[in-house]
């Protein structure tokens, strides 16, 4: 070290120490003390210090709850959109793959940013070549992009229209129509009444017929539940009885195309058109009991007046008019074979039927009818009410038609007679007061 450098350092050190001794160091010390004093609660104002200490912290559980619901909403909306695309275009479509990659990519980017904020911020800054981009801005942009993409998908979904002309399966290829007699409006001539001879669950001799019925001869309603997928899901049919004629059955069904099969999940995504079938019981019930091996139960509805039965029949005619004028979509939850019947029945029964969750669980519809007093609790008038188990035992029609030869009298009523064996058929009520009183009594007995 040179002599000049040595003296320079010496005088610099001395000068610094001198200035410190002359008050600069004390000034710095006073500043430090002042700062430490500012950081401590003042003893002169103990109330202020107490308030500072007891200041409530922002609750974090609300923040996390909000984040959970946002994540759940994003996940469910993504699943809905992907399923809608899948059922409309199939798994091999370019549109399906593009939508899947886009949706998953956007959600994966959001998840990565939320879980690895610092790493994601470095990656974003590196990709953009700047240090000023905030991850919160990127999150908002991703959510906005996903929302816009999903809304476009939602608009597309609701723009899908049902069609009348497709390559339909034979059993739903025709649409029921009707005309009224000019001199007697109770005389209805139905065309395209199905009367197939079923040989197997897929093979049948096709037959579409014309049948004239007299609504003034209506004598009652039977509801049939056909179980094909466990105890919770059943197909519901309604049969109208006549005084001197064989019954006529109506069924809301999906209008399947050739090669198409039913899927309860696909029924949420505008995959199936809705069809109304008018058919002979030897066709539409026989195919379920004998050809397909489904378990079918037939329940005669009690405590009805003829005008209610007639009004429900008219509702089916109106439904046929509406479907012929404009096709509609089947929906597994809102427009299926069971709750459409309930909507119509509630309109014609002056709200006698209460709302119940079992309307959407079709397999439990008989229990709902029993609790609502629409199944007579004492049909044989022997003083001992029937339980629901007794109703299921008596109304199980598969054993009654096992081995039935269905290719005999195609316009006979033998099949309809056999499925009603050991089932008491209730008469129509004479008045509304009697009907409501008997229904109330049956409901009380059922409990």
UniProtKB/TrEMBL annotation:
Membrane-spanning residues: 63-89, 95-116, 137-158
Segments of this protein annotated with the region Disordered: 15-49
Keyword set, alphabetical order: Membrane, Transmembrane, Transmembrane helix
Domain Lnb N-terminal periplasmic: 205-362
Compositional bias segments (type: Polar residues): 23-45
Keyword set includes GTP-binding: no
Stretch forming the signal peptide: none
Name of protein: DUF4105 domain-containing protein
Organism annotation: Psychrobacter glacincola
Phylogenetic placement of the source organism: Bacteria, Pseudomonadati, Pseudomonadota, Gammaproteobacteria, Moraxellales
């Amino acid at each position: 070290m040179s002599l000049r450098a040595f003296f320079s350092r010496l005088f610099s050190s001395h000068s610094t120490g001198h200035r410190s001794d002359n008050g600069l160091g004390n000034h710095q010390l006073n500043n430090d003390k002042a700062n430490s004093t500012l950081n401590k609660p003042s003893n002169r104002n103990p109330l202020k210090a107490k308030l500072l200490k007891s200041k409530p912290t922002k609750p974090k559980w609300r923040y996390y709850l909000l984040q959970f619901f946002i994540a759940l909403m994003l996940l469910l909306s993504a699943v809905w959109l992907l399923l809608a695309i899948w059922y409309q275009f199939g798994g091999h479509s370019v549109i399906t793959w593009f939508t899947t990659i886009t949706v998953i990519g956007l959600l994966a980017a959001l998840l990565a940013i939320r879980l690895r904020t610092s790493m994601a911020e470095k990656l974003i800054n590196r990709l953009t070549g700047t240090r000023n981009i905030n991850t919160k801005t990127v999150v908002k942009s991703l959510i906005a992009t996903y929302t816009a993409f999903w809304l476009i998908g939602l608009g597309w979904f609701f723009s899908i229209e049902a069609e009348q002309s497709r390559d339909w399966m034979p059993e739903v290829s025709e649409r029921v129509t009707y005309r009224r007699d000019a001199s007697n409006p109770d005389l209805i001539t139905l065309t395209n009444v199905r009367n197939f001879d079923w040989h197997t669950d897929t093979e049948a001799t096709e037959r579409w017929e014309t049948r004239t019925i007299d609504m003034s001869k209506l004598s009652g309603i039977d509801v049939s539940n056909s179980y094909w997928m466990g105890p919770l899901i059943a197909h519901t049919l309604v049969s109208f009885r006549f005084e001197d004629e064989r019954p006529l059955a109506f069924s809301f069904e999906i209008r399947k195309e050739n090669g198409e099969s039913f899927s309860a999940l696909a029924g949420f995504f505008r995959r199936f058109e809705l069809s109304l079938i008018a058919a002979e019981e030897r066709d539409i019930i026989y195919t379920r009991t004998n050809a397909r091996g489904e378990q079918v139960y037939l329940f005669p509805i009690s405590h009805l007046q003829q005008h209610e039965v007639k009004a429900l029949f008219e509702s089916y005619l109106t439904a046929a008019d509406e479907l012929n004028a404009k096709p509609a979509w089947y929906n597994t939850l809102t427009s299926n074979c069971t709750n459409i019947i309930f909507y119509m029945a509630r309109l014609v029964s002056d709200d006698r039927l209460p709302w119940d969750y079992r309307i959407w669980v079709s397999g439990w519809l008989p229990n709902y009818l029993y609790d609502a007093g629409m199944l007579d609790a004492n049909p044989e008038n022997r003083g001992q009410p029937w339980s629901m188990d007794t109703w299921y035992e008596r109304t199980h029609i598969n054993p009654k038609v096992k081995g039935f030869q269905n290719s005999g009298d195609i316009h006979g009523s033998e099949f309809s007679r056999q499925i009603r064996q050991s089932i008491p058929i209730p008469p129509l009520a004479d008045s509304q007061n009697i009907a409501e009183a008997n229904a109330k009594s049956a409901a009380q007995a059922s409990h």
